[in-house]
């Protein structure tokens, strides 16, 4: 329990530091758009393009479908098992910039999906690895900047996404 308390204190410190940084107002405007890229429409568009261009024979499409079939239920179980309050509920006198879609914050679903898709795409298009992981990291940062996640929520979301992608690639390839 002491370890969890220490992690939470560090998390709150990092969260507060970011919110008080001079660049926060600029970041919050950009973060609204970055966060929206992780809402899911982009993933549906990628899947549709793959389906209409290659059909179900596309290993990338099959890996994406399997990854989402594994990651979404796992994310849901983790989120509802840990029941970690979002920053707005955990910190006095704090209001997030956007309204989150659910009550709990751990792990970050936006971050998990972004890192999962980035990992899958980078496997098939290695030249895009750096921009894909840069985008996924920006989605993760945007969730903290918008005040709906603590840093460790996004860290664990990234780990969940990468692990799920690697698992699905191992099953498909």
UniProtKB/TrEMBL annotation:
Stored CDD domains: PAP2_like
EC number: 3.6.1.27
GO cellular component: plasma membrane
Membrane topology listed for this record: Multi-pass membrane protein
Catalytic activity, as annotated: di-trans,octa-cis-undecaprenyl diphosphate + H2O = di-trans,octa-cis-undecaprenyl phosphate + phosphate + H(+)
Localisation: Cell membrane
Molecular-function GO terms, alphabetical: undecaprenyl-diphosphatase activity
Stored InterPro entries: PAP2/HPO (IPR000326), PAP2/HPO_sf (IPR036938)
TM segment ranges: 113-135, 155-172
Domain of life: Bacteria
Coiled coil: none
Record's keyword terms, sorted: Cell membrane, Hydrolase, Membrane, Transmembrane, Transmembrane helix
PANTHER family named in the record: DECAPRENYLPHOSPHORYL-5-PHOSPHORIBOSE PHOSPHATASE RV3807C-RELATED, SPHINGOSINE-1-PHOSPHATE PHOSPHOHYDROLASE
Annotated protein name in UniProt: undecaprenyl-diphosphate phosphatase
Organism whose genome encodes this protein: Methylovulum psychrotolerans
Lineage summary: Bacteria, Pseudomonadati, Pseudomonadota, Gammaproteobacteria, Methylococcales
